[in-house]
Amino acid sequence: MPLYRDEAVVLRTHKLGEADRIVTMLTRYHGQIRAVAKGVRRTASKFGSRLEPFMVVDVQLFEGRTLDTVSQVETLSAYGKEIIDDYPSYTAASAMLETAEKLTGDDSVPQQYLLLVGALRSLAKREHDASLILDSYLLRALSIAGWAPNFSDCAHCSAPGPHTAFVLQLGGVVCSNCKPAGAATLDADTAALLGALLAGDWTVAEASSSRSRSSAAGLVAAYSQWHIERGLKSLQHVERE
To answer: pLDDT tens digit string along 71-128?
Structure first.
C-alpha cells in the first residue's frame, strides 16, 4: 500500500460510522482526494480538529483502492476560526470551497490549490472586503479552469474596447455591432472593477463604489453559474452590500 504526502486544503467532511470521517481535500500535487480519517470524531483524537473545512494541512496518506487513509496530519495554516467568526468571510469561504471542489478532479492543478490558499488567507486576515475577495477568486479560478472572461476587446469580432455589453455564452464583452438582444449592460466603472478583480489589482477594486460592486457581483455570479455544472448553492448565502 503506497504512502504519500502532500499539502492540502480541507474542502468538506462527512461522518462515517461511529468515529470516522471521510475528508475531501484539494491537494497541491495530487488533485482532489477523498480519504478516511479514522477515529477523528473521538475526543481523544490527535488530529480531528485539523481536518475541518478551511484548514491548510500537511497530510500523509496510505493509498487505497477506493478511498485513501489519513495517517498523519500537521497544521500549516489554521484559517478556520478567523473565517467562521465573521459571517461574510464564512459565506464567501464556503462558496470558494464549493467552487474548488467542482472545478478540480484527480489531476494535479497546483494553480487552483495556491489560488484557494491565497484567497482563504486574505479572508482570514481581513485584507479586503469579503465579497471582493470572493468575486476575484471566482473569476481567477474559472480562468485557470479554461473559462477566462474577457473584459476588454469584443469576444466575437475582437474589436478593441471598451464595450458596454457582456454575453455569458461568449465569455466576455461585445461591441455594439455584435450585441445580441438581452445582453447584460455594463457601465465603465463596473467593467473596470471586473478587470481589476481578474487581474488582482486591489487598488482599483478597493476604490470602487458599492453600486459597481453590486453590479459586478451579479455578473460574476451569473458567469460562475453558467460554467459550473449544477451551479453553486453556497452563493445564495453570501452577504452582499
So the answer is: 999 999 999 999 999 999 999 999 999 999 999 999 999 999 999 999 999 999 999 9
pTM across the whole model: 0.93
- The answer on 98 and 160 residing in a single domain is yes
Return the axis-axis angle of helices 188-199 and 130-144, rounded to nearest 10°.
70
Which secondary-structure segment (H or E) carries 68? strand 68-78
Q: Which of 35, 54, 78 is the last residue of a domain?
A: 78
| Predicted pLDDT at 1 | 52
Q: How far is CA 143 from the centre of its chain?
A: 11
In 104-183, which residue ranges form alpha helices assigned H by DSSP? 110-124, 130-144
Question: What is the side-by-side order of every strand in the sheet holding 165-167?
Answer: 172-174, 165-167, 184-185
Share above pLDDT 70 across residues of the chain, in percent, rounded to a whole number? 96
**Is the same domain home to 228 and 153?**
yes
For residues 49 and 89, membership in a common domain is answered with no
DSSP-H helix ranges across 1-107: 80-84, 87-103
Residue 106, all three cell numbers: 484527480
Range of the domain at 43: 3-78
Residues 125 and 184 in one domain: yes
